[in-house]
Amino acid sequence: MSEYGVNQIKSLQNVDAIRQMPAMYLGQLNSTEQLVYEILDNSIDEFMAGYGNVIDVHIYKDFTVEVIDRGRGIPVGPSEIFKDKDGKPIDTLTGILTTLHSGGKYSHDKNSGYSVSAGLHGVGSCCTNACSDYFCAIVKRDGHIYKQEFAYGVPTSEVEVIGDTDETGTTIKYHPDKQIYKASLEPSNRLEGRLVELASLNSGLTINYINEKRKVNKSFYYKDGINGYTLQLIEKKKRLYDEPILINDKYDNIDGSKILVEISFIHDNEVEPNNKIKSFVNSINTYEGGMHVQGFRNALKDYLNEYAINKKLIKEPIEMRYFEDGLYATISIKMTNAEFEGQTKTKLGNAIAKDAVESVLKKGLEAIAKNRKQSKILDLIAERASKTKTAELAARQARLNSRKAKQLTSMALPGKLADCANHEGQSELLIVEGDSAAGTTKQGRYKEFQAVLPLRGKILNVSKADIGKILNSEIIKGIVAAIGGGIGDKFDVNNIRYDKIIILTDSDVDGSHIRSLLLTLFYYYMPELVRKGHVYAALPPLYRIVKKDTTSVYIADDNELEKYRKLHPNDNDILYRFKGLGEMNHTEIKETTLDPKTRTLKRITIEDAEEAAKMFEILMGKDASLRKEFIEENAFSANIDSL
User: Which residues pair with 245 in a beta bridge?
Assistant: First the structure.
């Protein structure tokens, strides 16, 4: 058993700035799930180290969060690393929960306590502690139960023994600080999806999830591990073969460590196939892929080409994109010293990961080829790829000619664009719903750095349209031309004309629909625009309250209105409800939506765009069974405005 005690804990720096600059450490502050992740990652690390196979996540009605694991428990006792302002040692538990970048995962010693870790992508328990008005740690280890409480990252009690036990583990219970999370104390609905991911990627782990606010009580356990996750990716689409191919093995690293590689993939058999590859490193979702994904693509392409040529299914090697047609894959590796590109840690940089995945996948495919029954699956994949290429070649020339002609005529700037004077620095493109609202927005905008593009009606739903039809849409051509950078595989985020693309629509069903259509366009054909943080949604208020002194107060939504009325029950204020942007004058739009000092913007994440695209695939796609199932499941709880 590897050591995990007070001498394995390393301290890198303090967290004095966390409460003053929380967004630097936690990203967006409109939801609190990152606080949960920082605690949950530590529990996952314990499971990956071989300790504790059950984790409980409990969200109480007041948004207090409790995470319970059965790991080894956070080390407790005096440490030479952590000291108070007078230089006297403090308890290791106190130090870990109040010091940034501290823990056994920062030691490269083979006895550090962790061989792989997911918890290094955040700032750990100390950040959750600093951003909570209440925080309590209960630790079971060494035959005792220890407890310490905190408020705003500061201890309010000493570490005390509250009982004896033969069990081990850590319980963290905290309540987010509303001074920091002013918009909401609730974790978003992405939390449940992340729990599903973690349970799928860690075969044998059970995650019990209770959310009293959402009335959820579920347990996530996947006996088949990532195979279960791959089946979730393909959902109810027709399959080319019955079950996913699962390949897993260990790869010997040159430093003596082992890299665990797990690969699961399946192909759909739809008339209009899709594809999706999800990749993970130490349970971290690597949205931008990296070396492990490159290794998967290389090995799959090379081996299938060799196999198909030997069996005379094809005459010459074909490109990977034909084998990827209809492919749904999950790639998960677990390794020491994972290196990521950039601060977001969504792209793996270790070159050895590419070698590991290539080696394991090739070995696994060779074993499948030797199995008479399983080899038929490889035949199906190769034959499908060959047919796809043949059909594409037959239509390529005509399609390319048509596409080039359309692209040549679509790149002129749209006549309705009211451009800004200066494109340097923080320039903004406001895509505005309706000519009326756009006219008012033009009056209220800051002409130096804000451009306005009117949007008349709903744009084409790109999730079910081919590229030719998309490029023939005048509305989409105008959007593409105004943004710059191109579209599809030719899109280059470095060539965009504005730093911020701001979607400005009414706060109603139609506005939500238009916003979702735009997000679907960006997700499928300009994903880097979203990944690089250039897309925003403006959040205009629903209400204006005119007080006795004629001053105005703007209210975001019905919930905020209810709070305001409770605080001002007897005020004889005049309430106005904006039915749409067109009802605002240019002063109101400027104050509430255009002025960077007073407006509210929501930065759109790639998960937001993916969720919008998925919703349109369900509600407007060709598979009526998915639509029926969605309606039946959500008939009594659907919120159309959330689209």
Answer: 265
Residue 230 within a domain: yes
Query: Which 3 state secondary structure label does DSSP give 595?
Result: coil
Q: Count other Cβ atoms within 10 Å, centred on residue 486.
A: 18
Least confident residue range of 59-68, 198-207, 268-277, 470-479: 470-479
Residue 75 belongs to a domain: yes
Is 508 annotated as catalytic?
Answer: yes
Whether residues 533 and 568 fall in one domain = no
Q: Residue 176: give the domain boundaries.
A: 6-220
Task: Please enumerate in sequence order all residues whose Cβ is within 8 A of that of 584, keeping only pairs 6 or more positions apart, or say none.
Answer: 437, 440, 540, 578, 592, 593
| Cβ-contact 92, 103 below 8 angstroms | no
* Contact assessment for residue 42 and residue 143, using Cβ atoms and an 8 Å cutoff: no
Alpha-carbon Rg of the chain, whole angstroms?
Answer: 27
3-state secondary structure of 578: coil
Alpha-carbon distance of 176 to 191, in angstroms, equals: 16
Are 557 and 601 found together in one domain? Answer: no
Tell me the pLDDT tens digit for each residue of 81-102: 888 778 888 999 999 998 875 5
CA end-to-end span of the chain, whole Å?
50
User: Is 506 annotated as catalytic?
Assistant: yes
Q: 514, 454 in Cβ contact below 8 A?
A: no
Q: How confident is the model at residue 256 (pLDDT cuts 50, 70, 90)?
A: confident
Q: Which two three-digit tokens encode residue 159?
A: 């570490």
Q: Name 259's bridge partners.
A: 251
Nearest to 56 by CA among 171, 191, 187: 171
Quick check: is 405 in a domain? no
Helix (H) or strand (E) holding 610: helix 606-620
Based on the fold, state whether residues 292 and 188 are members of the same structural domain: no
Helices (H) and strands (E) in the chain, counts: 19, 26
- Which residue from 162, 125, 136 is spatially nearest to 64, judged by alpha carbons? 136
Give DSSP secondary structure letters for 522-541.
HHHH-HHHHHTT-EEEE---
pTM: 0.57
510 belongs to the catalytic site: yes
Assigned domain for 408 exists: no
Backbone angles phi, psi at 564, to 5 degrees: -65, -45
Local structure of 455: helix, strand or coil: strand
Please compute, for residue 625, the number of CA atoms within 13 A of its CA located in the half-sphere on the CB side.
Answer: 4
What is d(CA 206, CA 221) in angstroms, rounded to the nearest whole number? Answer: 5
Contact (CB, 8 A) for 186 and 175:
no
Sign for the CA dihedral angle at 623, 625, 630, 631 comes to positive
- How many domains does the chain divide into? 4
pLDDT at residue 629 is higher than 80:
no
The yes-or-no answer on residue 224 being catalytic is no
Phi, psi of 638 (to 5 degrees): -70, 140
Q: The tokens 């190769």 sit on which residue? A: 382
400-431 in b/e form (b: 16+ CB < 10 A) is: eeeeeebbeebeeebeebbbbeeeeeebbbbb
Name residues whose C-beta falls within 8 Å of residue 125's C-beta, 6 or more positions apart in sequence. 38, 39, 42, 96, 97, 137, 172
Q: Hey, what are 435's tokens?
A: 């000519």
Catalytic residue chosen out of the listed positions 197, 268, 325, 506: 506
Which one from 142, 306, 508, 528 is the annotated catalytic residue?
A: 508
The residue annotated as part of the active site, out of 133, 379, 510, 591, is: 510
In terms of residues, how long is the chain? Answer: 643
The rounded Cα 77 to chain-centroid distance in angstroms is 37
The set of residues, in sequence order, having a beta carbon less than 8 Å from that of 180 and lying 6+ positions away, is 19, 22, 29, 131
